[in-house]
Amino acid sequence: MFARQPILQPGLSGFASSTAEGGLLYLGFALAFVDLYFFWQLFLIFVGARAGAEISRLRMLAGLIVLGGAQLALLALPSYLLASLGSLSLVRPFFYY
């Protein structure tokens, strides 16, 4: 914001290789959503669920890990699909009259 330049690799995506393909590319897109606010959101979900439910802390943490993983997987899916399908070229069919 102060440098007036866009953030090229948000979150923890700077740890992923920029030339990655396949699963590592998907991991890079998922890491782009891991930042301070992601952990704050998980913490708030944990506190709220802990206050409202009568289950053990271990089960709550396991559910939170599954929830966080599913959230990252769903957030990274559109970016991964666009990057994977972005290199395709359209071939128009030939119509003979």
Determine the fraction of residues in helical runs and give it as a percent range. Answer: 55-70%
Distance between the termini: 58 Å
> Gyration radius, to the nearest Å?
20 Å
Biggest sheet architecture = none
Number of domains: 1
Estimate the mean pLDDT confidence.
82
Description:
The radius of gyration is 20 Å and the shape is elongated. It is built from three helices and no strands. It has one domain. By secondary structure, it is mainly alpha-helical.
Keywords for this structure?
97 residues, mainly alpha
Short description:
This protein is mostly helical and about 100 residues long. The chain contains three helices and no strands. It has helices at about 25-30, 35-50, 55-85.
Task: Spell out the blueprint of helices and strands.
Layout: H1 23-31, H2 36-52, H3 57-85
Helix pairs in contact: 1-3, 2-3
